[in-house]
Specification:
With 351 residues, the chain is α+β, with helices and mostly antiparallel strands. It has four domains: 95 residues, Distorted Sandwich (Calcium-transporting ATPase, cytoplasmic transduction domain A), CATH 2.70.150.10; 89 residues, no CATH class; 30 residues, no CATH class; 117 residues, Calcium-transporting ATPase, cytoplasmic domain N. It contains twelve helices and 17 strands. A six-stranded antiparallel beta sheet has the order 2-1-3-9-4-7, with no helix packed on it. Strand 12 and strand 13 form a beta hairpin. Helix 3 packs antiparallel against helix 4, helix 3 runs antiparallel to helix 5 and helix 8 packs across helix 9. The longest helix is centred in the middle third of the chain and has 31 residues. The two termini are 36 Å apart. Keywords: ATP-binding, Hydrolase, Membrane, Metal-binding, Nucleotide-binding, Translocase, Transmembrane, Transmembrane helix. Belongs to the cation transport ATPase (P-type) (TC 3.A.3) family. Type IB subfamily. It is found in: Endomembrane system. InterPro entries: ATPase_P-typ_cyto_dom_N, ATPase_P-typ_P_site, ATPase_P-typ_TM_dom_sf, ATPase_P-typ_transduc_dom_A_sf, ATPase_P-type_domA, HAD-like_sf, HAD_sf, P-typ_ATPase_IB.
């Protein structure tokens, strides 16, 4: 949906032009690359970055075609369309990799360049010898000898095996989310001694989940999750879905909150079942004057484990801390152990 001459209209993605203002609603896929000019939202860019948390977008920020708008509606100005978009460039890179030559293929081509003429000479020599010196029917035997030489010695496999294997390998890798820049990368992979892995979406699932619930001495774990989920029902924060999913997995049905309020940079608050609930970071707890006690130490421990701690206060008193993180894939440990078993050092890179 684009705006042209002050009117909104639906057009095919192929007809979007540079400079068009495009309208994107919640849940829709962004059609082309551009710059946000009106509104704000969070955008799921995991297809490009691997990050599980949606990226917050506001006026002036770039948006990428193929990513998914999660919450708010916005307008953006198209800056790259068609083959110039980031997604199109990735597709082009895969196609170029399939058509590239590995060093060993160049060697095969060089060998074939000498081998083919040699085979042709041998075939012609075979024909002449059988024709001049062979028994009758000489012409048939001469042709049979020449053709047999060409068939047996033809270097078809030498010239076709490498490019075919390369094309299939790059294509299969792309199907599994692995982009290979060129054929040389595949060949040198056999000599690798170190593999560098991104954490998010590679070692981990790529989707945040509720992993820990720590409560104070007077607190109740089920109540803490129920109150947190109730507030997050109305929240657009990227971690809200993780908390709601955590409540569902515990068979907890959250109530509808009243007087809900989102506090930018702090968290959310509202009334749930007659209790004033505050859910957010340390700054929110300081704002309402809640004494964290041992929960502060617990939050540091969770943060050191790579998790995001979220405090909850009930009626002005700190009741617990919950943690959201991106859990490991089930096969990550086995895969890394396998790489180490091959003598390959494994390094993790994370923000």
């Amino acid at each position: 949906r684009v705006v042209r001459n002050g009117k909104e209209m639906d057009i095919p993605i192929e007809e979007v032009l540079v400079g068009d203002k495009v309208i994107v609603r919640p849940g829709e896929k962004i059609p082309v690359d551009g710059v946000l000019v009106e509104g704000r939202s969070s955008v799921d860019e995991s297809m490009l970055t691997g990050e599980p948390l949606p990226a917050e977008k506001q006026e002036g920020d770039e948006v990428i075609g193929g990513t998914i708008n999660k919450t708010g509606a916005f307008k953006f100005k198209a800056t790259k369309v068609g083959k110039d978009t980031a997604l199109a460039q990735i597709i082009k890179m895969v196609q170029e990799a399939q058509g590239s030559k590995a060093p060993i293929q160049k060697l095969a081509d060089t060998v074939s360049g000498y081998f083919v003429p040699a085979v042709m000479v041998i075939a012609v020599t075979s024909f002449v010898l059988w024709y001049d010196l062979g028994p009758e029917p000489r012409i048939i035997l001469a042709l049979l000898g020449a053709v047999t030489t060409l068939i047996v010695a033809c270097p078809c496999a030498l010239g076709l095996a490498t490019p075919t294997s390369l094309m299939i390998g790059v294509g299969k890798a792309a199907e599994n989310g692995i982009l290979i820049r060129n054929g040389e990368a595949i060949q040198v992979a056999s000599a690798l001694d170190t593999v560098v892995l991104d954490k998010t979406g590679t070692i981990t699932i790529g989707k945040p989940a509720l992993t820990d619930v720590i409560v104070t001495g007077e607190g109740n774990e089920k109540d803490v999750v129920r109150f947190a989920a109730a507030l997050e029902k109305n929240s657009e924060h990227p971690l809200a879905e993780a908390i709601l999913q955590g409540a569902r997995s515990r068979d907890i049905v959250p109530s509808d909150p009243e007087d809900f309020k989102a506090i930018p940079g702090h968290g959310v608050e509202g009334i749930v079942d007659g209790h004033r609930i505050n859910l957010g970071n340390r700054k929110l707890m300081d704002r309402i004057g809640a004494d964290l006690g041992l929960l502060e130490k617990d939050s540091h421990t969770l943060a050191d484990e790579g998790k995001t701690p979220i405090f909850i206060a009930i009626d002005g008193k700190a009741a617990g801390v919950i943690a959201v993180s991106d859990p490991l894939k089930e096969d990550s440990i086995e895969a890394i152990r396998g790489l180490k078993g091959l003598g390959v050092d494994v390094v993790m890179i994370t923000g």
